Amino acid sequence: MIAVLYPVVAMVILLLQLLLRTHRSLSLLGVIHPVISLIITLYFIVSPGIWDDSPFFLIDHMSLFVMLTTSIIFAAAALYAVGYIDGLVRSGDLEKRSLRIFYFGFSFLLAATTMAIFTPNIALFWICAELTTVLSAVLIAILALKATIDASLKYIFICSTSMLFSFIGIIFLFEAVRNKTGVGSLLWTEIVDEAAGLDSGMVFIAFVFFFIGFAAKSGIVPFHTWLPLAHAKAPSAVSAVLSGAILNIGMYGILRMTGIMKETGVFGQVSVLLIVFAMITISVACLSMLRQKKLKTLIAFSSIENMGFILLGIGIGSPVALFWALFHMLSHSCIKAGLFFSAGILHRQYKVPTRTGEDEIGDLLLLQPFAAVTVMAGCAALIGMPLFPLFLSKVGILLAAAAISVWIPAIVLLLFACAGVALLRFYLPVMAVRFPAGEGPVPYTAPLSMKVPIVLLLLLSIMIGTVMIPGEEAFLAAAVADLGFGVQL
């Protein structure tokens, strides 16, 4: 069974990282792990005949899609970390004795994320999701600064407390199945099979409790307060993983649970609940972006906005809306990871945040022309400019929303305009700042390992936004069907 390679490779990598000592060997192992995971995932995608009904792994289009996104982001972040972490060590921002903790934690986080995606058991999914919170918090606090430790503790407190509600939801769901069959079940597939006959009141309560925890995991308002601080204070390689991969674990849980609700008589109430929280999340995030003066915080609030938009697609619940929600998930992950990588180059150049608490960026095109261009491209992609994939997913979800109410796309478009203004309001003045002669910093030369992932993610984003890869539409449609929403696109 090929799926067993995921945990086997992870255990081998983790063992070697405990034994080896040099930075070069640790960073190399950090790259090898996600690359092998990506290769295994691609092999699964092109070879559906090897999927089986193993009791240990849930292999379907939906899980493989999320794993594909996860592998891409982790691979890009691992390559970026080769030069980025080395720079932190050279500048004294990261102690050498913390290198093993960083790379071990990074690989362990990938392993926990992988098991969360593929576990067929909802309780084990909860455990693995909680484990990703703890491991992420360790990576956030790796620089051992007061600000990063505070951000890490806030992240753990909010997410872990909220996840206790999800555990209660799982208990309610187990009891609902037990009341019908006489034997409870925690398997995703068995719960879906029994969902139609479950007590409506109990399953709705189960969904509400479950949603609280995984909404916090995804940065959905009002459970989002940890996210701007954690993403802004973490090392940029970690910020990219948090935004591009770990947030998706929360959405994956919500998607799976919504698929169960689709088979019950309460899907209408669930849909309204998700749409309301989605609209609140988009509103708070876009309006908050208008007053941000720090780049990474601005990007973090954009992550909240996009998670809210994905939730809107899930809440609409039509096959078309879910198709574009998944498309948006992959696109946002690639774009946002690239932006955090570019922000990391600016961090090394300007040593932000500075003593004033704000980014003091100047002579941007002169000192960092590469980062200047890639940040500009990333901002254009987030706004949803044509050629970039978010343009397609935004149009697709808004058209699906119009079938429910014309007010939803009207309000969302207005909020998107606010987000676009916020990005331009930050970036354009920064481009005009000039340091007095002789007072500017020395140009920072970013190593190739930091630039290559940014270029690759940008090219991948443009390819996704302009070319329909053979089999892409059918695969996404099948992922939607795995959730029980049909394939009528």
Automatic annotation (TrEMBL):
<dbReference type="Pfam" id="PF00361">
    <property type="entry name" value="Proton_antipo_M"/>
</dbReference>
<feature type="transmembrane region" description="Helical">
    <location>
        <begin position="29"/>
        <end position="51"/>
    </location>
</feature>
<feature type="transmembrane region" description="Helical">
    <location>
        <begin position="237"/>
        <end position="255"/>
    </location>
</feature>
<protein>
    <submittedName>
        <fullName>NADH dehydrogenase (Quinone)</fullName>
        <ecNumber>1.6.99.5</ecNumber>
    </submittedName>
</protein>
<keyword id="KW-1003">Cell membrane</keyword>
<keyword id="KW-0560">Oxidoreductase</keyword>
<feature type="transmembrane region" description="Helical">
    <location>
        <begin position="267"/>
        <end position="287"/>
    </location>
</feature>
<feature type="transmembrane region" description="Helical">
    <location>
        <begin position="124"/>
        <end position="143"/>
    </location>
</feature>
<keyword id="KW-0472">Membrane</keyword>
<feature type="transmembrane region" description="Helical">
    <location>
        <begin position="370"/>
        <end position="392"/>
    </location>
</feature>
<dbReference type="GO" id="GO:0016491">
    <property type="term" value="F:oxidoreductase activity"/>
</dbReference>
<feature type="transmembrane region" description="Helical">
    <location>
        <begin position="155"/>
        <end position="177"/>
    </location>
</feature>
<dbReference type="GO" id="GO:0008137">
    <property type="term" value="F:NADH dehydrogenase (ubiquinone) activity"/>
</dbReference>
<dbReference type="InterPro" id="IPR001750">
    <property type="entry name" value="ND/Mrp_TM"/>
</dbReference>
<dbReference type="GO" id="GO:0005886">
    <property type="term" value="C:plasma membrane"/>
</dbReference>
<feature type="transmembrane region" description="Helical">
    <location>
        <begin position="101"/>
        <end position="118"/>
    </location>
</feature>
<feature type="transmembrane region" description="Helical">
    <location>
        <begin position="6"/>
        <end position="22"/>
    </location>
</feature>
<keyword id="KW-0812">Transmembrane</keyword>
<feature type="transmembrane region" description="Helical">
    <location>
        <begin position="308"/>
        <end position="327"/>
    </location>
</feature>
<dbReference type="InterPro" id="IPR052175">
    <property type="entry name" value="ComplexI-like_HydComp"/>
</dbReference>
<feature type="transmembrane region" description="Helical">
    <location>
        <begin position="197"/>
        <end position="216"/>
    </location>
</feature>
<feature type="transmembrane region" description="Helical">
    <location>
        <begin position="448"/>
        <end position="469"/>
    </location>
</feature>
<dbReference type="GO" id="GO:0042773">
    <property type="term" value="P:ATP synthesis coupled electron transport"/>
</dbReference>
<keyword id="KW-1133">Transmembrane helix</keyword>
<feature type="transmembrane region" description="Helical">
    <location>
        <begin position="399"/>
        <end position="428"/>
    </location>
</feature>
<feature type="transmembrane region" description="Helical">
    <location>
        <begin position="63"/>
        <end position="89"/>
    </location>
</feature>
<dbReference type="InterPro" id="IPR003918">
    <property type="entry name" value="NADH_UbQ_OxRdtase"/>
</dbReference>
<feature type="domain" description="NADH:quinone oxidoreductase/Mrp antiporter transmembrane">
    <location>
        <begin position="121"/>
        <end position="412"/>
    </location>
</feature>
